[in-house]
Design a protein that fits this description.
The structure holds 2 protein chains of 2 kinds. Chain A has 3 helices and no strands. Chain A is mainly alpha-helical. The relative contact order of chain A is 0.16. Chain B is built from 7 helices and 2 strands. A two-stranded antiparallel sheet of chain B has the order 1-2. The chains are: A mainly alpha, B mainly alpha. Chains A and B meet through helix 3 of A and helix 3, helix 6 and helix 7 of B.
């Protein structure tokens, strides 16, 4: 049993790395996905309520997206680092 | 790497280019460096042409690009975030916007198709320059003590919470900011390039195996190319506006 485990160790490591990378990126995208949805949704309702201040809402929306998106990008960086 | 019997090139092959000139020295020139040089030359040329002595009053061609770029940076970046005092940062912000835009947009230009900002060196250098600028601006406009006090001890927070707030502010203002700025630009470009390569490889492989099925990935490739134009412009805009927000934040402290 242990022998088989030791033999499969190398392949196992590669496989676990791939699973970890994929799962890591997927999990890292959940929060920012919800966050960007909230940001854009609220920006759209702000623009619909007050079309005259749409420019300001749009600028602030992009800022909010940029800050929220950073978390997903960190997940993506980890994914790139873990890829063989 | 072999994904579903597709011969996908390893990630390093997509981003590392062999040196063309001066190989082996620290001044080696490869595709990335050439794109950056072109971006610098184009940015300088646009503004030299637009700002020449006897420029016509009604802008046309290159002058129109430069003038609408300046107006855009002034109206929707500087005035929205810093205010009228931010006018002295206009040259820096406008140049940075155009430089990042030109080194991003090579991602979709046929024949080049490589975003230079998908290599970390220049994004992190720009981010460090931005870090230096907003710290110097903060120290100049509020004094060293005032700047540290306003950025580490934001007013309006209950006294006891400073135990938690101050370390978070310290890390987020002085350590994480430049990295998040650089990683945002770099990772967006890497992701875009990988996406385009994936659909291009898929199209070629399916075209070789079963031509009609190659239509779907090719349509996605066209769609994603259009999307990447948007991302290139948006990332240049976001880098510039975040720089302006950081400068504005250290100029006028939160009250």
């Amino acid at each position: 049993m242990l022998n088989v485990l030791a033999q499969a160790d190398g392949e196992m490591l590669e496989g676990l790395k791939a699973i970890g990378a994929g799962l890591g990126y997927g999990l890292a995208a959940i929060g920012p996905g919800i966050g960007i949805g909230t940001v854009v949704g609220n920006a759209i309702s702000a623009m619909a309520r007050q079309p005259e201040s749409a420019g300001m809402a749009r600028t602030t929306m992009f800022l909010g997206i940029a800050f929220t998106e950073a978390l997903a990008l960190i997940g993506f960086v980890v994914f790139i680092l873990l890829m063989p | 790497m072999n994904v579903l019997a597709l011969d996908f090139p390893p990630v390093s092959h997509l981003f590392e280019w062999p040196a063309i000139l001066f190989d082996g020295t620290m001044y080696a020139v490869n595709k990335t460096v050439l794109i950056y040089l072109a971006a610098v030359v184009i940015t300088a040329a646009i503004f030299l042409v637009a700002g020449r002595k006897n420029a016509p009053l009604v802008p046309a061609g290159v002058q129109h690009v430069a003038e609408s770029g300046v107006t855009f940076v002034e109206k929707s970046i500087v005035m929205e975030t810093i205010g009228p005092e931010g006018k002295k940062f206009m040259p820096f912000l406008t140049t940075m916007f155009f430089f990042i835009l030109f080194s991003n947009i090579t991602e979709v230009i046929p024949g080049i198709q490589f975003p230079a900002n998908s290599r970390m060196a220049v994004p992190i250098t720009l981010a460090i320059v931005v870090w230096c600028i907003y710290n110097v601006v903060g120290i100049k406009s509020q004094g060293l003590g005032g700047y540290l006090k306003n950025s580490l001890f934001p007013p309006g927070v209950p006294k006891l919470l400073y135990v938690i707030v101050t370390p978070i502010e310290l890390v987020s203002t002085f350590v994480v900011r430049p990295f998040s700025l650089a990683i945002r630009l770099w990772a967006n470009m890497v992701a875009g390039h990988l996406l385009l390569v994936t659909f291009a490889v898929l199209t070629t492989a399916l075209w070789g195996a079963m031509p009609p099925t190659a239509i779907a990935p090719f349509a996605m490739l066209v769609l994603m190319t259009a999307f990447e134009i948007l991302v290139s412009v948006l990332q240049a805009f976001i880098f510039t506006i975040l720089t302006a927000v950081y400068i504005g934040g250290s100029m006028h402290p939160a009250h």
